[in-house]
Amino acid sequence: MKKLLAAISLVLMLSTPALAAGCYTPLEVEAEQGLRIHSELMVISLTCMRMPQGAYMYQKYQSFTAKNQALIASYEEDLISYYRRAGYGNPEQQLHTLRTTLANQISEHAITMSVSTFCRDYGPRIDKALAMDQQKVRLWAQHSFVGSPTTQPMCRAGEVASKY
Questions:
Q1: Can you tell me the distance from the alpha carbon of 160 to that of 112, in angstroms, rounded to the nearest whole number?
Q2: How many degrees, rounded to 5, is the angle at CA 21 between CA 29 and CA 150?
Q3: Helix axis angle, 134-141 to 69-85, nearest 10°
Q4: Where are the beta strands (DSSP E) in the chain?
Q5: Residues 22-74: pLDDT tens digits?
């Protein structure tokens, strides 16, 4: 009887796609990219706020954050759930590490350019983002960014059980 139950359990486990720890669902990809956008806007606002074209950039970043607070919080929860599923001991700390890593990547990019060039090229993103509704922000976050892949690949078909 024990062998039969073990065999049935094994068949059920193998026939039900498990949540993989080493890959993201599409919503987790969106969540990381959404946090990348939010981090980029923060770096832009802080880097460019003292430039002539940077007046009120930080206030605009704060407005974007307030306007999209629920979306940003859901992105954070999606990634905390991923880290929990993946077995990280402290999922919240892992999220903070990711946010720091994203901001550092963007800051390093800004350093490779002159501040004036960075602000000229990236500054308009603050107004662009602020003008978007939540659906447009989500569509932006669903886009893959060249040179900025997510920290985990997207799962292949069948690799992740649909939780949505």
A1: 38
A2: 25
A3: 40
A4: none
A5: 899 999 999 999 999 999 999 999 999 988 877 899 999 999 999 999 999 99
Residue 106 CA to residue 149 CA, distance in Å, equals 13
Residues 6+ apart with CB under 8 A from 115: 47, 48, 51
Residue 90, amino acid: N
- Distance between CA 33 and CA 108 in Å, rounded? 18
Q: How far apart are CA 47 and CA 43, in angstroms?
A: 6
- Domain locations in the chain as residue ranges: 26-141
Q: Which two tokens stand for residue 3?
A: 């062998």
C-beta contacts of 137-141 below 8 A and 24+ residues apart: 137/34, 137/37, 137/68, 137/71, 138/30, 138/34, 138/71, 140/37, 141/30, 141/31, 141/33, 141/34, 141/36, 141/37, 141/75
Query: CB neighbours (10 Å) of residue 124?
Result: 12
Cβ 45 vs Cβ 60: under 8 Å: yes
The C-alpha atoms of residue 82 and residue 88 are separated, in whole angstroms, by 9
pTM across the whole model = 0.80
What is the token pair recorded at 61?
Answer: 């970043």
Token couple for 76? 């954070």
Residue 154 is given by DSSP the state B
